[in-house]
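HUMAN: Can I see a protein plus its fold?

ASSISTANT:
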Amino acid sequence: MKKLFSEIQGRPVFSRDTAGPVARIFDLVIDPANGTFVALSVHPSAAKIVGARDILSWYPHIVIRDMDSITEPDEVIKVHEVLSDSSYGPFFKNTVVTESGEKLGRVFDYLINLDAGVVLNLMVAKTFLGLINFSERIIPVSDIIRVEPDQIIIKDDMRIPEGVREPEMMGA
């Protein structure tokens, strides 16, 4: 099943041993090295997480094993490794630039394959006054070169192979 982050963020999390919601999703913890989903952040600043292996269902509700699944990030080795890596940066709201330095905007959403646990595409846009998106782009994760705390660096949009000239303007 494929979902946009915007469709997941803020949704309630249920435990199979309780009747009501036990948490809400704030963010997804994504391993920047390979784009895999490692945990749900159910507390601001990832102070509490639910490891990916503790999620039983995404539909119709997000259901986790039990209340013990909500834990500190350093109790899950992979999550602790990702969050303590100095190059870790969240995907959501991060700035995206090309390897030549062109700023493309910020990530306003991303598509994740929940079954495979991987990010598929980033939705990037420039904003006007932080309110109006323009120049929107969909960037496949395969175009990401690296993720840094303050930016995501992707391959340049158009590369002209050596020996090939750019088309000349008519009449020039």
